[in-house]
């Protein structure tokens, strides 16, 4: 246990470098983490010996090393997000009897990573690996609602894609929708992707409070009229909250 503080400092260095736009001077690392300069140099040297950071002598800066890249690559191979979410989605499907999906943002699109559905259920156009315009999907809206306005503006610089004649058609309209979704804690789409179908989504967050993924249920509109959606949304939010906990995440302040 005597090594725990040192381990926490090393992890803090990795998180700081991962969040920075580029390599940092040792002095900047020491200031950001409130560490003595001499301790910071010793820590960086030890981490460099194991490949987790690398020194750039010409710039007098430190960046992430190959070992950090290897761990990141291994994380992707293990598919932890899908593995953590799958049992939660299965339980959600058992409760509501509708299709549940897990989606993430891929630029200005929603990318579906996971899909669970009850037996003998209607097939959807959205499936694992499919990408859809984020502003038309409940998943995308729930993720966009928790991004900074400048980032949303950068994702939608021009004309908006439309499928069924419904959904936000301008940046101003999208911003109004996102503000309301952020306030109530869930998003919905009503026929934006497929006429006669609707979706409800809620966001799961990572350890920085950043939107990590969205949990969605999709259903025939005639099975669940809009007045029942807040009750459905409560179950979706609980599932998204459980995924946030599994990711050791936290909702934004």
Task: Explain the layout of strands and helices.
Elements: H1 4-19, H2 26-33, H3 37-49, E1 53-56, E2 61-64, H4 66-78, H5 80-96, E3 99-106, E4 109-116, E5 131-133, H6 138-144, H7 149-155, H8 171-184, E6 187-190, E7 197-205, E8 211-220, H9 229-246
Antiparallel strand pairs: 1-2, 3-4, 3-8, 4-5, 6-7, 7-8
Helix pairs in contact: 2-3, 5-9
Q: Taking Cα atoms only, what radius of gyration do you get, to the nearest Å?
A: 21 Å
Biggest sheet, strands in spatial order?
A: 5-4-3-8-7-6
Approximate shape: elongated
DSSP summary, beta strand count:
8
Low-confidence stretches: none
Reported for the largest beta sheet, the result is:
6 strands, antiparallel
Task: Give the quaternary arrangement of the chains.
Answer: single chain
Total DSSP helices: 9
Helix percent band: 40-55%
What can you tell me about this protein's structure?
A hairpin with a 5-residue loop joins strand 7 and strand 8. The chain is α+β, with helices and mostly antiparallel strands. Helix 2 packs across helix 3. The protein contains nine helices and eight strands. The protein is elongated and about 65 Å long. A six-stranded antiparallel sheet has the order 5-4-3-8-7-6. Strands 1-2 form a two-stranded antiparallel sheet. Helix content is 45%, strand content 20%.
